[in-house]
Write a structure and sequence with these properties.
Length: 132
Amino acid sequence: MTSTKWFTLCLAGCALLLSACENQVRYTEDVQPILFSACLSCHDRDSEGYLNSGFSLDSYEAVMKGTNFGAVVVPGSPESSSLYLVIAHKTAPEIHMPPHTDEALAEGRGFSLSEKQTETIRLWIEQGAQNN
């Protein structure tokens, strides 16, 4: 292989690595702010969501622990992660998150995450749901 071809190959590889790094979703910078602003009011340790399911969003460890019924995040598999499925509304309507009840909406809760927020969480799970 000539040195020009080798250099071109190395340059292309570096560009690929850099683009992958730019798209890395980080828990502390990208995911946690979404969960805290949109979900924590119902899923901290003193609220209805936690009391009903045992699911707290107050830390990475709590998110990964899941509910009384099991894990809600399967690293690498958004379609197997109930956290993603309920926020993307890919489940039965009665378990969509946030709940869209009249009471929740009247209290200023119950508004769906934006497509961008949902996609951020999907990508984080797909990328391994790391604590980064």
